[in-house]
Amino acid sequence: MSDSARLSAPSALRNREPILDALRPHLPTTGLVLEVASGTGEHVAHFGAALPSLDWQPTDLGSERRASVDSWASDLPNIRPAIELDATAPNWPVGHADAVLCINMVHIAPWVATQGLVAGAARILPPGGLLALYGPYRRAGQAMEPGNAAFDADLRQRNPGWGLRLLEDVAAVSSAAGFGPPGVTPMPSNNLLLVFRRL
Ligand SMILES: C[S@@+](CC[C@H](N)C(=O)[O-])C[C@H]1O[C@@H](n2cnc3c(N)ncnc32)[C@H](O)[C@@H]1O
User: Fold this and answer.
1) Do residues 60 and 85 make contact, with C-beta atoms less than 8 angstroms apart?
2) Atom 15 (ligand 1): residue with closest C-alpha?
């Protein structure tokens, strides 16, 4: 895979180390981590290099992004070739994972993508399995930070189906699908890491 396939996202380069630090204590030591919406692949390449005892399955909807993922991960034997995965699909191309990770999709996709993500994770995770979501969220009864409010307005202008989600709504969907309540870790730039366990 040539380096020319590599896409880069400044945000991924900024947040990959803080996400790794916050995620590390929650991950199993061995097993398969499925990443939904891998984007450029800079996250999974960073995590795969830092945590070589885990196997990583990156995915994305777009072929250009999957080629970028494969290019960033080309030297890492514990990262599988990226595959196409639509979170809303009733059947996912991976039947089992020990953890499911999704960074910055929930607010930049229609709500059905979050519903599909949670349903799919519930199908493939064992009891105790981890669903980890990273991104900005709203909280019921709390005003958004000015930066998040501006981001939310921009997203909704670009696509009325996008926008920051209420943490309480994501927790309700997850609870209905068989997950426990979220562990919430505050992250830089008013983001959160949400950690759910399959019951
Ligand atoms: C803002 S990008 C985030 C990419 C990467 N995780 C990051 O943080 O740099 C949003 C991603 O959501 C993906 N996406 C949107 N709808 C999706 C769906 N229904 N199933 C899977 N991925 C989806 C897009 O393909 C895109 O890669």
Assistant:
1) yes
2) 109
Ligand 1 atom index nearest CA of 113: 19
Q: What is the pLDDT of residue 1?
A: 56
pTM tops 0.90: yes
Query: If you measure from the C-alpha of residue 150 to the centroid of ligand 1, how many angstroms do you get, rounded to a whole number?
Result: 20
Q: Give nearest CA residue, ligand 1 atom 25.
A: 61
Q: 61 CA to middle of ligand 1, Å? A: 7
**Which protein residue has the closest C-alpha to ligand 1 atom 5?**
39
Q: How far does Cα 77 stand from its chain's mean position?
A: 21
Q: ∠ at Cα 22 (14, 161), nearest 5°?
A: 65
**Residues for the chain: how many in total?**
199
CATH code, 17: 3.40.50.150
- What is the Å distance from ligand 1's center to 60 Cα? 7
Q: Is residue 66 within 8 Å of residue 82, measured between CB atoms? A: yes
What digits encode the pLDDT tens for the residues 68-103?
999 999 999 999 999 999 999 999 999 999 999 999
Residue 198 carries which DSSP code? B
Q: How many distinct structural domains can be found in the chain?
A: 1
User: Is the dihedral angle over the CA atoms 183, 190, 188, 58 positive or is it negative?
Assistant: positive
Domain that holds residue 191: 3-197
